[in-house]
What we know:
By secondary structure, the protein is an alpha+beta fold. 16% of the residues lie in helices and 34% in strands. It has two domains: 14-93, no CATH class; 102-167, 2,3-Dihydroxybiphenyl 1,2-Dioxygenase, domain 1 (Roll). The chain starts with 14 loop residues before the first strand and ends in a 7-residue tail after the last strand.
Amino acid sequence: MTGKDMAAPTLKWGHININVSNLEDSISFYEKLGFSMIIPGIPYLGIERDSGNPVPSAQAEALGIPENSTARACIMQLDEGFPKIDLTEFAKDSPQPAGTNDDLGMVRLCLATQNLAEDYESLLKAGVEFLSAPTEGVKGMADIALCKDPDGTLIELIEVHFEKWRN
Length: 167
């Protein structure tokens, strides 16, 4: 069977998982960005928010994590749409740091805004650490700013100016 003969997958956005070192600090950070917690835990994985319980063996195997891993987590959303984010704190002695923009794999989460300058100032006042101030993109097609969460996960804020994409 060739690619032409195969039915396209019926995939839709679900969630993005962000592993964190301190669940409560990360919840507070993402709330500053406008996220709200919708589920205290990840029920289908047997992970709760308040107690670092062992992830069931079958789910640990499915996730490719060591058996007897313990975790705390929650599911958050920015609005009522998708994707959601899962914040997961694994009990681990020496977690790896977050990647940088030139590493392989997913290195940053991008959130769109209607008013980058206003959101930037508001988030600065709320204590969010930015790596760059709002910067105009090529031909003014977008303005971007980069901040990071408590574990160094990069968060890009973007205000897109679609009217400038047509020129």
